[in-house]
Predict the structure.
Amino acid sequence: MKNKKKYSEDFELKWLENKKRLLNEDPEYKKAVEAYQMKSGADWLLFGIPVVAGIVSMQAIPIQSEIFRWVVCIAITILVFVLCVMVKSMANPHRAIEDIEADIKERYYQSLNKK
């Protein structure tokens, strides 16, 4: 992400007032946000895999203590979920939403300075 530029308090207040409208008007921002939505079966599969991993690990872990087995199972499920989220975000062809938002904010700042 780019270095954050210091803006005046007046501009920050105007940005907060108009942020939602400006972001929703930008086509690149809308496409990037839509890319994070779950639309296909592959998206749902990425979030179903952690559940399956948790169930399988519960049966396969050779630990006698039931509580410790549950803790390990939950840890495995969380780890697999994080990996699936990383795969989904790496498959996203768009720039990061924060970068797009920073560009929109900069354009808004430039447009206000021209006036």
